[in-house]
# Entry
Amino acid sequence: MAKEYVFGVDLGGTEIKLGLFNLQKGLIEKWSVKTDKRNNGEFVISQIAQETAKKAEEKHIDKNSVLGIGLCVPGPVDKDGLVRGCVNIGWGYKKAAEELQNITGVKCAVLNDADAAGLGEAVYGSGKKYKNIVMATIGTGVGGAVIYNGKVVAGSRGNAGEIGHFKVNINETEKCTCGKCGCLEYYASAVGILRFAKENLKNYNNSLINSFSDFTVKDMAECAQKGDELCLAAFDMAGKYIGLGLSYMAGAFDPDVFVIGGGVSKAGDVILKPIKKYFDLYSFNTESETEVLPAILGNDAGIYGACEYVIHKED
Ligand SMILES: [Zn+2]
# Structure
């Protein structure tokens, strides 16, 4: 029977996003369920298997016409498909693809979620016209992905392109989420941008932020668009560190284009312009030609990337 359908699954600490794709028509339907994290995520794999089986039944899709299930996870995945720990799910080392394949009986492949977002954007999103892209995802944390000739470059242990933990300040004494100090993520994530605003609020008496009892990066982006100096300074600071990180990425991979995704990227030019400005300042010989583009698939990038990954994964 001809293979016509693929599932793309994006496993997160709060919810599992799922997409049913047709190889010709693209995304047919997407939905999400709350992640069952009981017993250190023991039930997550069977939960994914049940969700995909239920959808196939609902759509009268024969199992033999399903090419496979692509799954992306919030943790490093090595070259053999072994998940090397997902703190948010409760997993230690896990053969996630093998377990899912054993339950469902269809081909399964697993990759890191930032890599999946990068692959999704590279093939279906704003990197579509380019061969080689580097993606940075700026949200609560900062992730990165390298896509070369339509393939994820994950490295031997799944750490390639981990821009969030590039050292950008070797004198820092406060700890990053990874346990070390001075990482890019500590400054340029949503958490870092909010921290900067709170620490510097006293120096900006006229800032619009003074009228908020609490505020988010979205509030800061709106204030920055109105010319608020504190908020502009905070995004400039984040853009400086991301631009610096991208200059290292350019030195290693020299991509055609950088794609910036994640919640913070929704701030638009307020963050994208500083990133490009500092990238041009710090990079070697690549600045004029390497564009910085916003991601366009939003929260769907992971399911697109996971789908694409399993399509081309060899058995
Ligand atoms: Zn770190």
Summary: The chain has a mean pLDDT of 95. The pocket of zinc ion is lined by residues 165, 176, 178, 180, 183, 185 (CB under 6 Å). The CA atoms of residues 193 and 234 lie 6 Å apart. Residues 128-296 form a domain with the Nucleotidyltransferase; domain 5 fold (CATH 3.30.420.40).
